[in-house]
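[step 3/7] fold_predict: job queued, chain A
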Amino acid sequence: MANTLHEQRSEPRNIIDTYYSVEFLLSDCSFVYQYKIWNISTKGVCVLVKEDSDLLNHVKVGDVLNLRYRPINASRPIEMLRTEIRHITKDEQGRFKGVYLVGLSILENQDPNP
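[step 4/7] structure written:
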């Protein structure tokens, strides 16, 4: 019997290879929040948000936002993509103790040949 592994995540894993960071531009906030994209969550890609960050007062699980993604390749354009907040999980004892992992899922289909 062959051992085959099947990807069960709903989020595309190549987001981490395409984008370096994401910016939250919220209508009820005068700040722009920029975060490096991480691939450390068991639920897919995420950003690390300090527990005292005001961003946590403006987003909740299930929110669908237009976020600005900065590509790894600086010669490529910044993209605005509809993104769902999938989870907001506090790391109680891991590598990022005291930090919230905010899981992201891009809802918009990306053009494979931009």
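[step 5/7] annotate
Confidence is low (pLDDT under 50) at residues 1-13, 110-114.
The beta strands are 19-25, 32-36, 38-41, 44-50, 64-71, 79-90, 99-106.
exit 0
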